[in-house]
Write a structure and sequence with these properties.
By secondary structure, the protein is an all-alpha fold. 64% of the residues lie in helices and 0% in strands. It starts with a helix and ends in an 11-residue tail after the last helix.
């Protein structure tokens, strides 16, 4: 089974287990979280952190968040190298180990939900995940942004202008 099939299988399980929580996430946003888990597994990490969510956004290969990250000069390869360089020591997880989310990663997901609500959206998309990652003032993803010279506030403004239809003052689904 390849990573895409594994992601699809994981998404189905998540939806079954927590429709009330994961139900607001777009399929792309769910794929990001699933990819983040896959990145953590591949790196033999014992938890999924914000750096893995950032990798998940880049692994998606499309969407508002991906386009902005690429525009800022980030790529899957460069962020993987950063995570490997500044990341934690690999762990030996037993077969079938369900890698949990770090408390910071859970907070980012909750912040993404709040971002969506504040924008009047009924869904949580990749743009909300990126807005939430940018709102974090500490942690691995924040460190990657700082080392890349990415300003969270100007990036936030760019995201908001990208998802807002011209002249409406309202954010649109992307």
């Amino acid at each position: 089974m390849d990573w895409f099939e594994e992601s699809e299988e994981r998404l189905a399980k998540w939806k079954q287990a927590g429709e009330e929580y994961w139900g607001k996430f777009t399929p792309r946003a769910l794929r990001v979280v699933s990819s983040a888990k896959g990145e953590a597994e591949q790196m033999k990490q014992n938890c999924v952190g914000t750096e893995h969510l950032l990798l998940g956004l880049l692994a998606l290969g499309g969407g508002v968040a991906f386009n902005i990250l690429v525009k800022l000069g980030l790529s899957l390869e460069t962020v993987r190298a950063e995570v490997n360089k500044h990341g934690t020591v690999p762990a030996e997880n037993p077969p079938g180990y369900n890698i949990p989310l770090t408390p910071r990663c859970k907070r980012v997901l909750e912040t993404a939900k709040k971002e969506a609500i504040a924008l009047g959206h009924t869904y949580i998309g990749t743009e909300h995940l990126l807005l939430a990652l940018l709102a974090e003032t500490d942690g691995p993803a924040c460190g990657i942004f700082k080392r890349a010279g990415i300003d969270p506030q100007s990036t936030r403004r760019e995201i908001l202008s990208e998802i807002s239809p011209p002249g409406s003052g309202q954010a649109g689904k992307s």
